[in-house]
Design brief:
The chain has 182 residues and is mainly alpha-helical. The chain contains 6 helices and 3 strands. It has helices at 2-46, 67-72, 83-110, 116-145, 154-170, 173-179, and strands at 48-52, 60-63, 150-152. Strands 2-1-3 form a 3-stranded antiparallel sheet. Helix 3 packs antiparallel against helix 4 (116-145). The chain is elongated, with a radius of gyration of 23 Å. The relative contact order is 0.16.
């Protein structure tokens, strides 16, 4: 009987040690994924996502942090706005807000201090981010397919990989349990 108790105690200690090791591995993966995701999303903001060097007006590269305001402020030769530019500007402004929201949600995730409200915010942001980046690919595809000489720039890769990494961090329930407050 004493041997059984000793074996049971040893098994409990071993299980506790293994649990701590698994938690340390989960923590390391979370820190790595949050760090990489944050860097990629910041790169998506401050690197150009499309460049239109062939344009006579020489608009040059567009950055997600400034493109919404450029599109919303665009006026033609008569000083009128174009409905398409307003729509694109509002869509880019929404994507900018979603990317900033995603970056902000990484802080409670990194600190493992996220409650249910932050979890809902993260999941909603993750879905909107994936959809927004997909929409940006459509918009960039339209711009590149024209005769203007537009090219895809580095921010598209940063945003795409960042959106995928963010989705992997916040959408699966099994991964959310790594950073959600108990």
């Amino acid at each position: 009987m004493a041997e059984t108790r000793d074996e049971l105690t040893e098994l409990r200690v071993t299980t506790a040690i293994l649990g701590e090791r698994v938690e340390a591995i989960e923590r390391a993966i979370t820190v790595f994924l949050v760090s990489v995701t944050g860097v990629l999303l910041l790169g998506g903001l401050f690197f150009p996502f499309i460049a239109d060097e062939g344009d006579e007006e020489g608009d040059g590269p567009l950055f997600l942090v400034s493109a919404p305001f450029q599109a919303l402020g665009y006026r033609d030769d008569d000083g009128d706005t174009d409905a398409a530019n307003v729509l694109v500007g509002l869509a880019l402004l929404l994507l900018l807000a979603v990317v900033v929201s995603a970056i902000l949600v990484l802080f409670p995730v990194l600190g493992r201090s996220a409650g249910r409200n932050v979890e809902r915010w993260a999941v909603t942001t993750g879905v909107l981010l994936v959809l927004g980046v997909a929409g940006l690919w459509v918009l960039v595809g339209i711009g590149v397919s024209g005769d203007g000489g537009a090219t895809i720039e580095p921010a598209m890769g940063f945003l795409t990989i960042g959106a995928i990494a963010f989705a992997l961090l916040v959408l699966p329930e099994s991964v959310r349990s790594w950073w959600r407050r108990a």
